[in-house]
């Protein structure tokens, strides 16, 4: 049995098997329905990392996941001129998005960062549940 954490403190990390299950689920749901964030956040949010560390961890995780999807997506015929062209067109916005994310993560107080993150998790979960029930 894990000890209880005081309010606002970081929870102890989940056992390895639970962490493995969540990141595996995150990779799978990212591949299938582009919804890998909720399982990863179930693991990361209770750790109460600094906002910049949380953002960097998520970014590296999904960069690796997205790179790993290239070959299977190509094999499945999901990479075509249309979506590749859209990607090339949007590519110049990527550095702006990275800069804005780093700027915000360094400036937003941790309390508000986690409020926004949990609100986003709730909204994402509600949307996915709604889509699944329709």
Question: Nutshell version of this structure?
Answer:
It is built from six helices and no strands. By secondary structure, the chain is mainly α.
Q: Which keywords apply here?
A:
134 residues; mainly alpha; single chain
Give a verbal description of the structure.
Helix content is 75%, strand content 0%. The protein is built from 6 helices and no strands. It has helices at 16-33, 37-44, 51-75, 81-90, 93-107, 110-133. The radius of gyration is 17 Å and the shape is globular. 6% of the residues are buried.
Secondary-structure element order, N to C? HHHHHH
Q: Tell me the major beta sheet.
A: none
Mean pLDDT: 89
Form type: globular
Beta-strand content = under 5%
Structural class: mainly alpha
Unreliable segments of 5+ consecutive residues? none
Distance between the termini: 39 Å
Instruction: Count all strands and give the number.
Output: 0
Question: Fraction of residues in helices?
Answer: over 70%
Count of helical stretches? 6
Q: What's the Cα radius of gyration?
A: 17 Å
Question: How would the blueprint of this fold be written?
Answer:
Layout: H1 16-33, H2 37-44, H3 51-75, H4 81-90, H5 93-107, H6 110-133
Helix pairs in contact: 1-2
């Amino acid at each position: 049995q894990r000890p209880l954490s005081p309010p606002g403190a970081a929870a102890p990390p989940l056992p390895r098997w639970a962490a493995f299950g969540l990141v595996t689920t995150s990779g799978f749901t990212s591949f299938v329905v582009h919804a890998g964030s909720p399982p990863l956040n179930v693991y990361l949010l209770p750790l109460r990392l600094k906002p910049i560390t949380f953002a960097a961890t998520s970014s590296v995780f999904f960069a690796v996941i997205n790179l790993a999807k290239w070959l299977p997506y190509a094999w499945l015929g999901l990479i075509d001129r249309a979506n590749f062209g859209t990607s090339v067109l949007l590519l110049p916005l990527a550095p702006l998005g990275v800069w804005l994310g780093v700027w915000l993560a360094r400036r937003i107080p941790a309390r508000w960062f986690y409020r926004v993150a949990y609100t986003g998790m709730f909204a994402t979960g509600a949307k996915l549940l709604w889509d699944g029930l329709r």
